[in-house]
Amino acid sequence: MEYSPERKRSGLPREVWKWVQSLELSISPKNIRRDFSNGYLVAEIFSWYFPEDFSLHTYDKGASLSTKQSNWSQIKKVLVKHHISLMKESINGTIHCKPGAAEALVQEIYTLLTNRRIQSVQEEALDFTDQRYQERLPMVARATVSKAIKNNLRLSEELAEPNLNTNLRKIHNIIHRHVELRREERSQNPKRFNVKPTLGEQAIRLPPSHTHTPPPQGD
């Protein structure tokens, strides 16, 4: 298998990367998360399969939130006509450059258009947070709660969702994940966090005594 640093950086499986390259897109994707965010390349991919419905001159190559929303709105309308539905989480994650979202979206499109199956799309749970990345870091290098919020809630995401309560729920979920990760760290490394054992943990465990059965009474 030939080594391709571009494919390695893309985070895409080899067969998907080769498929993307075979389409000879107007923009050669170097940063999957950034290059697919505005939807233009997605429209261009679909134009190979449905040329009569995807007029690329109606799509903008800009990077503003309004441009992204306009492009993706057009894409979704055309896909409805062809009874194609992309995962909402993948689209939103791609728009807001969430970790792994664009990669998952490209693979989803690949399976839809080529009718080939990829395990990472169909069988793995979608998680567009930085949790897996944080888990691979040494504990001293992991994000604080404020950094976790910044990493997992993009400014564009807040601008796209004007409902304050919705954004507050997202922040609450990020904090909850962060607290759970810290709790797991404390349980795995009690000495580092100076966690003292509870009285129950300090108590000496004795083997259970056998129940004494009284001898039978004589007549």
List key phrases describing it.
219 residues; mainly alpha; 2 domains; 13 helices; elongated; CH_2; CH_dom_sf; Spermatogenesis-associated protein 4; microtubule binding; nucleus
Characterization of this structure:
By secondary structure, the protein is an all-alpha fold. It folds into two domains: about 15-115, Calponin-like domain (Actin-binding Protein, T-fimbrin, domain 1); about 130-195, no CATH class. Helix content is about 55%, strand content about 0%. It is built from 13 helices and no strands. It has helices at about 5-10, 15-20, 30-35, 40-50, 65-80, 90-95, 100-115, 120, 130-135, 145-150, 155-160, 165-190, 200. α6 (about 90-95) packs across α7 and α10 (about 145-150) packs across α12 (about 165-190). The radius of gyration is 26 Å and the shape is elongated. The termini are far apart. The relative contact order is 0.08. Residues about 120-125 have low confidence and may be disordered.
Topology:
Layout: H1 5-10, H2 14-22, H3 32-35, H4 40-49, H5 65-81, H6 88-95, H7 101-114, H8 119-122, H9 131-136, H10 145-152, H11 155-160, H12 164-188, H13 199-202
Helix pairs in contact: 6-7, 10-12
**Biggest β-sheet description:** none
CATH topology of the largest domain: Actin-binding Protein, T-fimbrin, domain 1
Query: Fraction of residues in helices?
Result: 55-70%
Oligomer: single chain
What do the pLDDT scores average to?
75
Tell me the CATH architecture of the largest domain.
Orthogonal Bundle
CATH structural class of the largest domain:
Mainly Alpha
Principal-axes shape call: elongated
Number of domains: 2
Care to count the β-strands?
Answer: 0
- Cα-atom Rg, whole angstroms? 26 Å
Catalogue the unreliable spans. Answer: 121-125
Main location: nucleus
Domain CH-like: 17-111
InterPro entries: CH_2, CH_dom_sf, Spermatogenesis_Ciliary_MAP
Keywords: Nucleus
